[in-house]
Structures are given as C-alpha cells and as structure tokens.
Design goal:
By secondary structure, the chain is α/β, with parallel strands linked by helices. Helix 13 (about 340-365) packs across helix 14 (about 375-410).
Length: about 700
C-alpha cells in the first residue's frame, strides 16, 4: 500500500525533487514541446481535476485512444488519479476494434487523439447513446488544429491555458474550437454529439476547468487499493475480438518498484521512446523512468534513426526488429564503404571480434550452450587460446570500427529489448560493438516483465532472471507435472505482476490459469545450478510458443521460432514462417527484404546447389535477375542459414519455400505493435500461397 501511495503522488514528488529537469520532449510536434517535472505535475493535476469537474468518478472507465505525446501521459495519469481506469488503444486502430473496446469496456467517457478520431467514431457513439447501451459523459480531444499554443518558440513550453466558459461543459466555448478550419465533418460531429447530450471538450478546456477547481480547493487523488483496476489493455486478437486484460494499480506499482533490479537509471538520463505509449511494455518502462527522474523523448518507427543521432539518449527501449534494422544498416554501410583490401581487413576484424566475444562467454561461464552441461575441457582450453589470440584484433576493431558504430547509433548506455525473441546474431553483434542489450520477456497479462537480463549477469541467448517476487514454474505441457531445471517445458507464472484475468470473460480467464498459475504459452527451461564453470543458474531460456509447435509426420516436434530467427539473419529475408504440421518435411513462407533487394544486397549463399524448390506469389518488382533468380537465391539462403544453426538436425530440413513479395505491417494486421508476425492473420491473408506450399510438402 505504501508503494501504491507513492505512485499516486509520483508527480508531486518528482516536482519537488527534480522540478527543473525536463520530463518529456515532444520533438515532432510543431513547434517542439518540452515539459519539466514541475510543469508536468501541474498539467497532470489540472487535467485530473478537469476530468473530475466534468463528471469523472472513481470506478468509471474511460477509452483513451491516442498516440505518443506528452498529452497522452497527462491524460493517462489524470484518469488514474481519479480512481478511474483507462481502456487504451491507438487512434489509428481499425474502427471495429475501437468500437468493440468502447462497448466491451463499458466506458462512460472517451479521450481521443484529435478531430479525425472523433469523426471516425461518431456513428458508433451516436448509435450507442441513442440505443441506451452507453451514456457518455464527455468526449475530450488531446490535439486539435493547433499543435501547441500559437506563438510558442520551438522547444518552448506552452503558455498558461486561456479560461473557458463558466462551466466548461459546452463544446462551443470550451476549447474544442469548432471554427478553426477542421472541416464541416468535425463541426457536424460536435453538433450531433451536443444534441445527444455529450459534451465535446478541448484539451485546454479540461485543463482550465481543473485549474478553477483547484483554485477553489486542493485536488486529492482517489484512494485506491492494490487490487483496484487501473487499466484495460486489449490484446491483439488473432481470431475474433481482442481480450481486455485487467491490470491493477498493484500490478503496475510492482513493475515500477522492481525494474531497477535490471535497469539502473539516474535522474537526468534520457530515453528514446518509439513504441505506442499504451503498449504495456512501453508504458511500464516509461512509468519506471519517470519514477527515477529521467526524460522521455517521443519518437516513432519512421524517425527513430534520425532521433537517435539527434538526441543521443542514455537508454533505448525497443523491440528486436528495430535492432535488426540498425544492424542491417550498419552492415550495409560497412560493406559499401569498405571495398577491396579495406573490405577484407574489415571482414577479418569482424570475424575476429565475433570469435573473441564467443570465446569470452565460454571462459566467463555465460555461454548458454553450456548452461545444462559443463563445457568439455578441450572447449574451455580452446576458448582461452582463441580469446588471447583475437584480443589484439578485437581491440583494433574497437578503435577502427565499433567506436564509430557506437557514435553513429547514438545510444550512450543501454538498450532494453522486449516484445519478442532476440536473434543470436544480434546479441553477438551488439556485444562486439560494446553496447549492452538487456533482453526481457513478459506478456500483457503479466504487466508485462517476468524476467530480464542484468548488466552484471547478461547471459546472451537467455531472457535473464525472474523479477524479484515472481515465481516461474516449468511443467510438462500435457500433464502439467513440474519438470527439473534444464528440461524444456511449458512455463507458468505467478506473482504480484500477474493479471487477475480478462474483463467480462470468465471462460477465457479460467482457461488462462492452471491450478492458480498463469499459462504463459511459452516453452523454455531454467538453467540448473551445479554445472561446473557455469554462472547461469536460474536464467530462463525460451525455445518457442507451445501453440506454434509443428509436429511432423515422424512425430518430431519442431519449434519454429529458432529456425525462423536463423533464416532472418540473411540480409535478403525480412520475415520467415515455417509450416509442416503432419507433413514429412518443413516448408517456409519467405518475405524478402525489399530494401536489400533494391540495393542489390546479397550475401554469399555458401551452398549454391540447394535442393529446395520454391515458387513466388505475384508482386511488384522483378528483383535481382528476375523472379526465377530470386527464388533460387532465397532457397539457397534458406538452406544455408538453416544448416548453419549449431543445433541443426536433418529433420529440420526445409524442403520448399513460398516467396511472397508483399510487406508485413501493423496496418495490414500482419504484424503486432511490437513488430512480431501474427501467424494466423498471415496464414489467412495468404491462404492460397499457404495451400500451394502445403501441397508441395511430402505428406
């Protein structure tokens, strides 16, 4: 309860302790916006009081449909300070998804990104209001035509809000600014909502109403318990509607309290944020950063490379696909700039560096390949020799190559990666560069972090140690009997971070728990203690998703993620998805990296005579020496990358591939917001190609 009280008074405490430090930077607003902790505290208190003035009560639910900005933080905290809960999603999400969340959450108010979002949702709002399904107290907009108060200097802070009408409830005089040129559709929407009894509020109107309320009496945050609902986070539904994960104030406070076990942040540090603010991974890390007096710089997938260079953050919170993008850009630049003899030297230094860090892991007892059984004496001796022989070359690479890479990347201290598995080649690359990557693991239902790597125990290939207070149990996937350390099974979780279940979905909640333990759906194992030379005891290693396991006709179980990750090491392959359930061999859907194809980038196939066959779906661009040449090259890449895996087995052979010349994206529903492929959506969208591939696999 003490920690919960600290969370509710976070902004006041921060203002008192770090008042003049910058808390947030909206660098892509026009003009740019920066708020200190003192200013952010005032904004949050005024917005919270303004929502209360417009009827928000403890226990209410509010849809918060908006994108990254300082005002998202203000709105989120304003809602929570009233003891209400927000149902969160991006404003760019499909209309049917937003409509479902609005209805399913039982929200009595909405906070929306802008006028366009209001116009998009208008028919649904009017229908629900008219039918008596829901009564909306108000709809508040975070942004209108003005990106900031007129006349502000770039990077300056907004001026004091102008007073609105006496009660702030009428949208015609409350800052909604109907006449400023947003178009007749918006004006009509405001009129229709007003006629239906729903107030439309501008951001400044809410803030002004809160200022008046606070002038009359101090605003007091609601008293909430640890079990009080804080937010509903709707998971991306792969089939049917998304599920609303119930996360409490206690769930969120627990994460904030314990993330310093993994990530050390000092007051004044900065972090670049590119994930949606409502994504629970980004959200809880942001809460933690704010609790330490750090500055959040808002970026995006489109601008993050430029923003890294411009702002040189201390910390970078991202997903594996972003690290893969950075890696590919660095390697492409090295390849373009280092040709001839210089290219040979660079290649030799990179190879020596890779060998050095791999040997160093073995010597230090943190090579995950030896987590379950001690490395043979010969391997340890060889590692010592390799480490010594490559040390001068590694030092030279640091001076000539990696120092420049670090400077170009712009990240000064730490990368935090979550939301998906980190490919081994990315781990090795950033380790060689000298940039620590803390890879974590969790789910929305666990708020989210279950385990993460620490700087002092950064075991590559693992997702680190459990969060203090979190229990992880590895069980047999069928019998659910506990398994000993070192043996792969289904991972169950329990602890203060685990959700109580799904909103208004008792059946899904029952299905998600096994004897009181949350079923993560992930397969993995825990590194055992007592292995000679190992310093990895207790670290968690993931091996795939239980529901994605492919069972071949031979009975062999194939976990697709490690193989897919190996295929995606090729610069030509952006995404790969395995198929082969009840077949004698595996097949793969291959989505090429169109940028690499356009640039003529290709890696040596190593094995030019692959027996794999392929076909291609129709798509734009001929690529390389035509579609037939592309098919052959990608088939060879698949065979090479697959066979190069340390744990490759002949039954892992990929017999056929299907090339699809179309990008996966969040907008098409084929990628999650953390850039992971949504398998069911992809298989449905490309059903003809999937069927063609399955027909060619031996059955």
């Amino acid at each position: 309860m003490l920690l919960l009280m600290m969370m509710m008074s976070l902004w006041a405490r921060n203002a008192a302790q770090w008042g003049e430090l910058v808390a947030v930077r909206d660098v892509h607003r026009s003009p740019a916006l920066a708020l200190t902790y003192s200013e952010l505290n005032e904004a949050v208190l005024n917005y919270a009081a303004g929502l209360k003035a417009h009827g928000l009560q403890q226990g209410d639910k509010v849809c918060l449909f908006a994108e990254s900005s300082s005002r998202w933080i203000v709105a989120d905290q304003g809602i929570l300070m009233n003891g209400a809960a927000d149902a969160v999603r991006g404003s760019s999400s499909p209309l049917d998804e937003l409509a479902f969340i609005t209805q399913h959450s039982g929200s009595s108010a909405l906070v929306l990104q802008d006028r366009a979002t209001l116009v998009k949702l208008l028919p649904m709002l009017l229908e629900a209001q008219a039918a008596g399904q829901q009564r909306f107290k108000f709809v508040a907009l975070l942004w209108q035509d003005e990106q900031q108060q007129p006349g502000s200097r770039p990077g300056s802070r907004p001026s004091s809000p102008r007073p609105s009408s006496s009660n702030g409830a009428s949208s015609s005089s409350n800052g909604a600014n109907r006449s400023s040129g947003s178009g007749s559709a918006y004006e009509a929407a405001v009129s229709q909502l007003e006629a239906a009894g729903v107030a439309v509020l501008g951001y400044e109107a809410v803030v002004a109403a809160g200022g008046r309320l606070r002038a009359a009496r101090p605003f007091q945050p609601a008293r909430c318990s640890s079990s009080s609902l804080a937010t509903l986070v709707y998971t991306s539904g792969t089939t049917g509607h998304p599920k609303g994960v119930r996360l409490s104030h206690g769930n969120l406070a627990y994460q904030v309290q314990h993330l310093d076990y993994f990530l050390q942040v000092a007051a004044g540090d900065s972090s670049l944020s590119l994930l949606p603010p409502w994504h629970i991974y980004q959200r809880t890390v942001a809460y933690y950063l704010f609790s330490r007096g750090a500055c959040e710089v808002f970026s995006s997938l489109r601008t993050f490379r430029d923003d890294l260079a411009a702002h040189a953050p201390d910390h970078f919170v991202c997903v594996p696909l972003v690290l893969d993008t950075l890696h590919n850009k660095v390697m492409a630049k090295l390849k373009a700039e280092a040709t001839g003899a210089k290219g040979a030297i660079v290649a030799a230094l990179l190879a020596a560096s890779s060998a050095h860090v791999a040997a160093r892991r073995t010597v230090a007892g943190v090579d995950v390949a030896h987590a379950r059984a001690a490395a043979p004496l010969a391997a340890r001796v060889a590692a010592v020799v390799v480490m010594a022989l490559t040390a001068p070359l590694y030092a030279l690479a640091q001076r000539l190559i990696f120092s420049k890479v670090r400077a170009a990347l712009g990240i000064r201290k730490t990368v935090v990666s979550g939301g998906g598995s980190l490919a081994p080649h990315l781990d090795a690359f950033f380790e060689a560069v000298g940039l620590p990557v803390l890879n974590g693991w969790g789910l929305t239902e666990t708020s989210p972090v279950l385990a993460c790597r620490r700087l002092s125990a950064n075991v590559r290939g693992s997702v680190g140690l459990p969060v203090p207070g979190t229990q992880l149990l590895v069980v047999d996937p069928l019998s659910h009997a506990p398994l000993p350390d070192g043996q792969q099974g289904l991972i169950l979780a329990a602890g203060p971070g685990v959700s109580s279940g799904y909103h208004n979905d008792a059946a899904a909640t029952r299905k998600a728990f096994i004897d009181g333990w949350f079923d993560t759906g992930d397969l993995g194992w825990r590194a055992p203690a007592g292995v000679a030379g190992s310093r990895m005891a207790g670290h968690i290693v993931l091996s795939g998703r239980a529901k994605d396991t492919i069972v071949l006709l031979s009975g062999k179980n194939i976990e697709p993620q490690p193989i897919e990750g190996a295929l995606e090491q090729s610069p030509l392959i952006k995404h790969a998805l395995l198929l082969g359930q009840d077949k004698r061999e595996l097949g793969a859907l291959v989505f090429p990296d169109e940028e690499a194809l356009a640039a003529g980038a290709s890696s040596s196939s190593g094995s030019s005579g692959s027996s794999s066959s392929s076909s291609s779906s129709s798509g734009a661009g001929g690529g390389l020496d035509g579609e037939a040449g592309l098919q052959r090259q990608l088939a060879a890449e698949v065979a090479r990358c697959n066979a190069a895996r340390p744990d490759y087995h002949p039954e892992d052979h990929i017999g056929h591939i299907q090339v699809i010349r179309a990008p996966l994206s969040v907008e098409s529903g084929t990628l999650t917001r953390t850039m992971k492929p949504r398998r069911p959506a992809i298989f449905e969208l490309y059903a003809p190609q999937v069927q063609q591939l399955l027909a060619r696999l031996r059955g």
